[in-house]
Structures are given as structure tokens and as C-alpha cells.
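Protein folds are increasingly written down as C-alpha cells. With that in mind, we are printing a sequence and the C-alpha cells encoding its fold.
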Amino acid sequence: MQLLLVEDEKQLANSMKRGLEEEGYTVEICYDGTLAETQGLTNSYDIVILDWRLPGKDGRSVLAEWRRRDRNFPVIMLTALSDTEHKIQGLDTGADDYLGKPFSFEELLARLRALLRRKKDMETELTIIRQGPIELDMRKRQVLFCEDELILRPKEFTLLELLLGHPGDVFSKAQLAEKIWGSAYYISDNVIEVTVSTLRQKLTDSWHKNRTDKKRKKAH
């Protein structure tokens, strides 16, 4: 679990780093806001602990730039400014949580775990598409139809992913060729039609199989 710790109090930062590493985190420390901004823009982190008051550039400004540049890792903001106004400012800037100094290390760990659970849930939602009886898992490259696995060729999978991700949209053959094969110049209409027809047939066969299985269960 890659963690960026941005804290200018070096004794506190080093103590936190030791404790977090004992909990299994890989910790990188920044003591300066300007450097932290660059690190957040050029590296991937699972989570960031960010102090408000920093030399170079304050934490709120650093966070605002990250969010402006679509860096969406979870951020816990630390600050000795515990009044409600500062808390609201931090959260409105894009912080996911807020912890006032001084704080309990156990509470920090609990908040990290909660944010990471939320991040995992969001990633799962983004990688799984559900439409009616169809569930498509983009990470596993797996399709379930009424909970039964449907075996698809790679292009059939990509076609289904496109259609499920854009319900109600109509695509021309040129658009399908561009989005699925990467080019509209070298793919014939026949190839597109065969892929669409095969996918449709597999879905139809799976639907009929599911209905037959249900009737058999009722009969028994």
C-alpha cells in the first residue's frame, strides 16, 4: 500500500513513518508543499496524509492543484486549525477526511482503513457493469448471464462492454470498427456483422438455457 506523508515537522513525520511501516504501508515522506505537489502529480499513491501548514506551498493549495489535475487518490488532511471553518475549507477543496492535531495514531489508522475500504468499493463499482441479467467484470474479463458464465471472444467482450457502458446509444459500423478494432479502414462490414450476430446469438442461447433450467426446477 503506497502512502505519501506530507508533514514538515520532521520528528513527527519520522515517527509516523515508522508506525505506518509497521502496519504494512510503504511510506514516502515530503517535508515541503511544492515538492509534495510534484510528487502527487507524477506518482501513483493509494492514499495521502497531507498537513495544512507547509513551507513552500500550503496543503490546501497543493490539494486543490491535485484535484484540478484529476489526481483522485484519497487524502486525509492534518491540521492544528481545528475550527469548523477550516475543516469545511479542507473538505470543499477535495479532502476525503480531516484530522486535527494532536491526534491518536490508532484513530489515524482507523481512518486510513475506512478510506481504503471506500476506495476499494469504488474501484469495484467502476470495473463491474450490470445491466439486467448481465454482469460484466472488466478486471477479470468475465461475463455472467443470470449468474452463469458466458464465454466470449475478446472482440465480443469489447463489443458487449461498449454496449453496456452506453445503454440507449446507437453506433454506426464505422464507430464500432474504430472503438473495437481501433480502425475504421481495414475492418469490413462483414466482420462487424458477424461479431454482432455471434454475440447476440450467445446471449439468446444463454437466455433460453436459463429459462429451460428454471422450468426444469419448477417441474421437480
In short: The domain at 132-219 is CATH 1.10.10.10 (Arc Repressor Mutant, subunit A).
